[in-house]
């Protein structure tokens, strides 16, 4: 399905009674998804971010169009697992139901650095923080899945960029460093680090689907969308991504379509554990590492061990 064939206004059925939690919802694809859901009468949309001012502006904008929608901002810094836990606890204090967890927040191609907990920063934000949120909210999602006509989903934002991970996949041994030289010169360390994190998002959805089949867990590539993720990346650093995207860019105003499709399509139209390209197309352009079941299991085991204290 081409993005122009998917129309969130007409193709999304009623979301009445459903509760959503979207990470990184204050801008970009996250805010686009929130607006798309708000139009279809959900029970409650929770969203995370770091900027309360941006959150307040979004709430005002959405409620000016859809006055009855319940929107709640949960402040969260994904470089801090303590902050992720606090956001999860705030959600759990307000809702005993969760139909959709959209792991949308992310960074791309940024300088070598580490999170507050010591993880390589792209891997820490894009994978580890989301994995903790999933862990903390999973009991609620499993309970929701027992309800009549339940359709509980976890949407992991991956990317075509998963192919930029090192050929062996993930360098577990150095994930608690900045991995400043990961992957060598091509496509460049920052893109290797990004690819590694997006590969983790893809593999983790596979493992969630295998271990919790009562929840539909998928990974999605939004397409090549020139969102705010590019704002702090200079032209030369951006060049590999720009070259890869030639002829395949998705308009910014349609950038959220694939993740919204994955959230709202009929359950019979989506395959648990699958990776989707825009819009609703099973991804065939995936790396060998993305098909490595042993790597997926190792990532799962590593992640559970890292989060055991939470």
Automatic annotation (TrEMBL):
Q: Matching SUPFAM superfamilies, A to Z?
A: NAD(P)-binding Rossmann-fold domains (SSF51735)
Stored Pfam families? adh_short (PF00106)
Known InterPro entries for this protein? NAD(P)-bd_dom_sf, SDR_fam
Which keywords does the record carry?
A: Oxidoreductase
Molecular functions (GO terms): oxidoreductase activity
- What name appears for this protein in its UniProt entry? Retinol dehydrogenase 14
Family of this protein:
Belongs to the short-chain dehydrogenases/reductases (SDR) family.
Q: What is the lineage of its organism?
A: Eukaryota, Fungi, Dikarya, Ascomycota, Pezizomycotina
Keyword Oxidoreductase among record annotations: yes
């Amino acid at each position: 399905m081409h993005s122009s064939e998917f129309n969130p206004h007409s193709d999304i059925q009623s979301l009445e009674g459903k509760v959503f939690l979207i990470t990184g919802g204050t801008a970009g694809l996250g805010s686009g998804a929130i607006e798309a859901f708000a139009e279809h009468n959900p029970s409650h949309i929770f969203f995370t971010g770091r900027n309360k001012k941006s959150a307040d502006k979004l709430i005002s904008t959405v409620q000016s169009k859809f006055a009855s929608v319940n929107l709640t901002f949960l402040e969260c810094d994904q470089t801090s697992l303590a902050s992720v836990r606090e956001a999860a606890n705030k959600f759990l204090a307000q809702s005993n139901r969760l139909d959709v967890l959209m792991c949308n927040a992310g960074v791309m191609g940024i300088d070598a650095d580490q999170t507050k907990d010591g993880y390589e920063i792209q891997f820490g934000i894009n994978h580890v923080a989301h994995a903790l949120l999933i862990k903390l909210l999973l009991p609620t999602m499993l309970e929701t899945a027992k309800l009549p006509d339940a359709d509980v989903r976890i949407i992991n934002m991956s990317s075509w960029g998963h192919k930029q991970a090192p050929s062996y996949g993930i360098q577990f041994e150095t994930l608690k460093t900045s991995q400043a030289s990961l992957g060598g010169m091509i496509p460049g360390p920052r893109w290797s680090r990004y690819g590694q994190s997006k590969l983790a998002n893809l593999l983790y959805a596979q493992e969630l689907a295998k271990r919790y089949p009562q929840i539909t867990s998928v990974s999605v590539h939004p397409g090549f969308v020139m969102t705010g993720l590019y704002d702090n990346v200079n032209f030369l650093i951006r060049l590999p991504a720009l070259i890869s995207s030639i002829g395949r860019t998705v308009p910014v105003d349609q950038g959220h379509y694939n993740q919204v499709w994955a959230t709202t399509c009929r359950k019979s139209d989506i395959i648990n554990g699958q990776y989707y390209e825009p819009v609703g197309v099973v991804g065939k352009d995936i790396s060998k590492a993305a098909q490595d079941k042993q790597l997926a299991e190792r990532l799962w085991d590593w992640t559970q061990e890292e989060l055991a204290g939470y």
